[in-house]
Amino acid sequence: VQLQASGGGLVQAGGSLRLSCAASGRTFSYVGWFRQTPGKEREFVAAMNWRGDRKKYPDSVKGRFTISRDNVNNTVYLQMSRLKPEDTAVYYCAAGTGYVSGTDYSSSQYHLAEAYNYWGQGTKVTVSS
Fold this sequence. Notes:
Blueprint: E1 2-6, E2 9-12, E3 17-24, E4 30-36, E5 43-49, E6 55-56, E7 65-70, E8 75-80, E9 89-96, E10 99-100, E11 103-104, E12 118-119, E13 123-128
Parallel strand pairs: 2-13
Antiparallel strand pairs: 1-3, 3-8, 4-5, 4-9, 5-6, 7-8, 9-12, 9-13, 10-11
C-alpha cells in the first residue's frame, strides 16, 4: 500500500492550493487529510468515505477546504482556498479500512488519527501573510 502526497508549496494569504494523494495497493473505506506543526499533535483537516457521499471537516477549515476523489486515477485531493497563515503545516493524507489494531472505526470517527491504517509522507504548505 502506498500513499503519495504532493502539491504543497508557498502561497500568499487568501490564495489557493490543491494537494494530491495518489493511493495504490488496495481499496479503502475512507480517506482523510491531517496537518501538523512542530510541537503540536496531528490535527484533523478533512475526511470522506470512499464513495464520497460522506464528508467531514472541522470548523477551522469548513467552507474553505474541500476533499474529493478521482475514481479513475485513485487520487484524493484537498482543495484549499482562502488560505490563512495559521494553515501553515505539513499536510498528511491517510487511508483507513475501518479496522485498526483490533478496533473497529465508524464514519463518526473519521476525525481520529488512530482510525487510519496508512499514511502518506507529508507535503509542506506555507502561507505567508
